Request: fold
Amino acid sequence: MNSALTSTAPTDGAERQPAVAGKRLQTDWSSPAMRSRVRARYRAEATFRYTGLAALLLAALFLGFLLFTIVRDGWTGFQSTDVKVSVTYDPATLMIDPAALKTPEAAQALRSADYAALMIEAVGQLGGAADVVSEGAWLILRENLEADPTLLGKTQSVWVPAKSNIDLLAKGKFDLAEPELTRGVSDDDVSDYTQLKQRGLLRTGFNRIFVTMADSTNPELAGIWGAALGSLLTLLITIGLSFPIGVMAAIYLEEFAPRNRWTDLIEVSINNLAAVPSIIFGLLGLAVFLNFFGMPRSAPLVGGLTLALMTLPVIVIASRVAIKAVPPSIRDAALGIGSSPIQVVFQHVIPMALPGILTGTIIGMARALGETAPLLLIGMRAFVVDTPQGFESPATVLPVQVFLWSDDVQRGFIEKTSAAIIVLLVILLLMNSLAIYLRNKFERRW
Amino acid sequence: MSDYPSNTVPETKMTARNVSVFYGAKQALKSVSIDVSREHVTAFIGPSGCGKSTFLRCFNRMNDTVESARVEGEIKLDGTDVYSPEMDVVQLRARVGMVFQKPNPFPKSIYENIAYGPRIHGLARSKADMDGIVEGSLRRAGLWDEVKDRLAESGTAMSGGQQQRLCIARAIAVDPEVILMDEPCSALDPIATAKIEELIDELRGRYAIVIVTHNMQQAARVSQKTAFFHLGTMVEYGDTSTIFTNPAESRTKDYITGRYG
Reply:
């Protein structure tokens, strides 16, 4: 190093001396110690940046893996295998008196006929492969005959759902090289499948049952529509209650309530409520809505009420933050030309706070859509084979359906579980897109 | 400046008698009395924190929005106490308009900014009526020629000076009797300030104007009456020419000559 420079430049020790007034030495910005400090700072910055990037990549990797496995396992859930059978709608087998079809009780006669026997007869014609169709396949026959009563006595080729093992074999879900004991499907089923396949009596296509029906004990007859509708009805109740009440509460607390011990207490309570585990809300719902008010169990009404209690604090907090963020100068401006307080709130504050309010609401609703625990406690884990008819009829919801199916021992429910998760995620995605659309629409800043 | 004959007694629009304002336990304004004339521009001057803005905000009861604020004394508009039950505060603020320190247009179009006040007070019978009010207000605020082709554009996208004139036009649109201006030029550059001052001069006579300002030259330029405030009291009130050339109080003189403030 240049000796002249070292003589004038302070050593690092000198730099660190406490700055006594008037005696502080001039800082040498090019000393080695200073340079190494600068390098260390850049190093720290780079380390921080790459750590962040690594975290992001890891998160993306996990998400990708999750989505990949779900879609891999689940997409076959949207497909089903049908068996072609030849059916003769024989009135004797069906135990229908043809004369009864001309009376006003015709519909009743068609509905209560013995289609199961007809199905057994039809499947018998398949020869060795006698138990390949689903237990509920006869429903297709009833549907057909009810749609067209003139079919009575005639013969028709019908595609009916295959039983779950045949369906899974068709989708290649079994390793046929394994011995019978461990591969999960009997040799009988495998030979039935091979025989049907060779005769061209099998087809795999879109699973109409899955998207139109509700739960069933048979995987091939189980559908997601019941749970989806249950979720929809439940969320309607939830948003219908928690949005107006939450926003009004936030407006009152922010714009009108005086600041005193009571409002402080309310604020603390709301913040605490937002942190209460959801299962506690389930217990609350059980105690209040079911036991005290005697509302029906397993109903979307009660589920919606319970989830509304859970969502309310989230909406109140988000709305208060959004309202607080509206600049006071806008309130002054509106008051200054003679707006009443209500006009200030509804014509100026709320429109400006709406994007934030909607974001908070959608976060709350997304949480409500994915919530399972509180609904288990109010009986929404019931096995419901009918799609819900209204807010008071028994129903289940998507996450509970996922939970129930994932618990089932039958192999056919594996793909149904993943398929149900896909439906849940798609609905979530749609809801979030709607929220983002609404937010951008209202966020049009002038 | 004041080429007004100072011997004529102008009609009084608003009067304040022994007005004191407290923020909690702290007294911000100590028993101030003043008469605001209908035809003049009245300026409140004084150093920061002297209570002039607090006093101004009593005239249209904007202090109501400050939770800890308490106002004592009597303020009358045309002989009616503004704090009495007969005085509706919403009506009061329509009759006594206000322009704030920082331009605060609504995040709406220029047209909507002006039309909002007349609409909530039901001043326009028809769309054409409203168009007329908007045009008239913008014209009187000297903004019409600049914005007539972009009335649908945002009020917040304009320059600071234009925004402040928009706020003045918004106040005018409600057809008030008094306009209170709280340091309307403190956030503006000298050219925009000059335009606002010109505008104030043009509005004089039609509206009673009270302006709070930090800028003594501004008070000298735009006002005919000046009140000097210091530490919560009104030290001196009189014709602007007298206050600036021959103040009665030494504190006024010291402030005006720049010894403090």
